[in-house]
Amino acid sequence: MPRELEELASQAFEELDKISDPKELETWQIRYLGKKSPLMQLLHSLATLPLEERRITGGRANEIKKALETGLGKRREALKEAQIAVSLQRESLDISLPGQPIPLGRLHPITQILKEICDIFVGMGFQVVEGPEVEWDYYNFEALNIPKDHPARDMMATLWIDFELETGDREMLLRTHTSPMQIRVMEKLRPPIRVIVPGRVYRHEATDATHESMFHQVEGLAVDRNITLADLKGTLFEFARCLFGSERQARFRCDYFPFVEPGVEMAIDCIVCKGAGCRLCGGSGWIEILGAGMVHPDVLRRVNIDPEVYTGFAFGMGVERIPMLRYGIDDIRLFYSNDLRFLKQF
Ligand code: DAH
Question: pTM of the prediction?
């Protein structure tokens, strides 16, 4: 018996040395140390042996069992370490590899120009405020001297919001200009007022190279004692030179807007032909960039500001036209078609 036992042991150790995988190790454990393994069977049947033989065989068998268990433990440890070494090797980072460039995002060209415009006016003491794009008829039209049957309504094809109000016949729309914020600001603040209002506006129009149903405007409003048309001209002329270059000329001509009196339109000398006349300015040498005027006394009265004491000027400009002029972009729709090839250029 002892001889067979020794042979079994040396065979077991020999196999154990060659095992390189945890599954095999398990099989080995079952074969040599499992309940049905010859060694365990032997240990179980010791009681049937004569006393002397039981002592010798039993002692040796237990020794072998211990040795096999120790060997198993060591092997298991070694396999685990080898596995860790392999995964370390596999997952290691090669920090000498060149990096992958991360594409940088940027501000939309319209966002950039809005920021530029606001910065210029902030530098002159204006405060930036924003207002709702869904607006009441009252603020968009009525309070700006544009009652229900006023022809000025036809100039701004309106997108109406279709819903019934329990309380009455107040109507909602998508604001067609940023001017309604003049009223909202004057309802809340008392003069001196200097605000600038950037934002989106909407018109119910077919889109083409120069029209979008959504575009941006910047509104301005200054109300105080002794504000005159000269303040309006000075402020807007300075603005035009900051934005379009210090050599710019500006031209003011009469225009009509129901909420100002007098109303003007401002043009700058064409940035391409410098006034000589070209395709961009339609041969006139001038490019209109905004509407403006002295706030109408009726508008002031409506918000409880006494027109005998206070006067003000207001202006409003389309924003998309500015980068179009500056960069020679000939289609407004490019701004909102999400084409990265276009947007990446700014
Ligand atoms: N709201 C006008 C428009 O969308 C532009 C405008 C003209 C605004 C004269 C003003 C102004 O504040 O005084 O056509």
Answer: 0.73
In angstroms, rounded to a whole number, what is the distance separating the alpha carbons of residues 308 and 293?
Answer: 17
Residue 249: CB atoms within 10 Å = 15
Cα-trace Rg, the chain: 43
Instruction: Ligand 1, residue 177: give the atom nearest the CA.
Output: 4
Read off the pLDDT of residues 243-262 as tens digits, 9 standing for 90 and up.
Answer: 999 998 999 999 999 999 99
Q: How far apart are CA 62 and CA 70, in angstroms?
A: 12
| Binding site membership of 260 for ligand 1 (Cβ less than 6 Å) | yes
**176 near 156, Cβ under 8 Å?**
yes
Given this model, what pLDDT does residue 298 score? 98
CB of 197 closer than 6 angstroms to any ligand 1 atom: no
pLDDT digits (tens, 9 = 90+) for 265-290: 999 998 888 888 888 788 899 999 99
Domain ranges of the chain: 2-90, 109-343
Structure tokens at 343: 């947007």
**Structure token pair of residue 87:** 């995964």
The count of other CB atoms within 10 Å of the CB of residue 51 is 6
Architecture, CATH, for domain 109-343:
2-Layer Sandwich (3.30)
Q: How far is CA 184 from the centre of its chain?
A: 28
Cis bond before residue 262 (omega within 30° of 0): yes
